[in-house]
Design brief:
This protein is α/β, with parallel strands linked by helices. The protein has 3 helices and 3 strands, in the order H-E-E-H-E-H.
């Protein structure tokens, strides 16, 4: 993604908590920081954000519903076969 666009600045923080200025200046954040126009969650649930009164009401939230369906199903089938 970073190589496909020279129009955007990418900041990789890992486990480091971003500063308030970094959050305020961001247009898109990938991670669990509820303070931008678009939030891509690393989880399937948005409950922690949708019920939070401090969350921006005009923010778009995307989640990862369905991301692990195949891998978890394969794991369950493998475990079932192993312990049957």
């Amino acid at each position: 993604m970073e190589n496909s666009s020279s129009n955007y600045k990418f900041i990789h923080l890992g486990q480091i908590k971003p500063s308030l200025d970094q959050v305020k200046d961001a247009n898109i954040i990938v991670g669990n920081i509820p303070d931008s126009e678009f939030v891509q969650l690393n989880s399937a649930s948005t409950n922690g954000y949708s019920v939070n009164p401090d969350f921006l009401k005009n923010a778009t939230i995307a989640n990862t519903t369905g991301t692990y369906i195949v891998s978890i199903s394969e794991c369950i089938l493998a475990l079932n076969e192993t312990y049957s």
